[in-house]
Amino acid sequence: MWRRARTGPLRLAAAAGGRRAGRRALPPLPTIPSSSVASSSSRIFRGSVWAPYRTLSSEGGASGRGGECWNCGATGVFLSCGSCGSVQPVDPAVDYFQIFGLEREYNIKEHSLEGKYKDWQKKLHPDLVHTKSEKERGFAAEQSALVIDAYRTLSKPLSRALYLLKLEGVQVDEEKTINDPELLMEMMEIREAVNDATDSETLEKIQSQIKRKLETWSETFQEAFDKRDFNSAVEATQRMRYYERAVEETVKKL
Asked: Which residues form a coiled coil (predicted)?
């Protein structure tokens, strides 16, 4: 039977000058607000998260089964038509992974994602569409917003995990807190260590420790998701949320 990895609390007091128990308890870190999956550009995406999987070609069109160009009727088009060059409207049947020609899986290569993101943005650059009709400029603006949201969602472990769960029909309550005294104590220790740190070297050490914990739970999510153990996958995302927020706290102070 699959069992999630157990990890003990971080010991950060030494890194921040040895200040430990006996200090006034700090409140736990708040939960992260809704991820970019529910961002403003999701209005453009509408219900596409429930669409069946489809593969995009390197040219940006859906291989053999793309949409039909509104201008010339060519098939297999996605962002722009290879035949007439017309910018296409957002296809609600395409999910974020398909936009970048990626398999729908958690472990993706960041450099591959970034490269394809830049390619799409070049094709949508205002300088390239300013001579187009108002209709096409509108399509380009919507496509650009969608590509940006897709990149932001897939480039971070937590938002990517939440999006994968959403594609599977699993809704996660992102406002739900975890009733785990050990985790909450660890978050208080982290918060106190960050507040007490007086130099960047100490903060970087704390951040490195937190990132290792985030990576551990990221691996736990992947293992659970691959086994279709969605309960454990959801639990992993809840813990990832705390560690991701803790990393953000160190970044603010660096």
From this structure: none
Which H or E element spans position 68? strand 67-68
Quick one: CATH architecture of 181-253? Answer: Up-down Bundle (1.20)
pTM of the model: 0.72
**Mean pLDDT, rounded, for 61-70:** 60
CATH topology of domain 66-155: Helix Hairpins (1.10.287)
Rounded CA gap, 31 and 227, in Å?
Answer: 27
Domain assignments of the chain as residue spans, ordered by start: 66-155, 181-253
Listed residue (124, 150, 140, 138) closest to 48, CA to CA: 150
Q: How confident is the model at residue 11 (pLDDT cuts 50, 70, 90)?
A: low
- Non-local CB neighbours of 64 within 8 Å, separated by 6+ positions: 76
Torsion angles phi and psi, residue 243, rounded to 5 = -70, -35
Q: Which amino acid type is present at position 156?
A: K
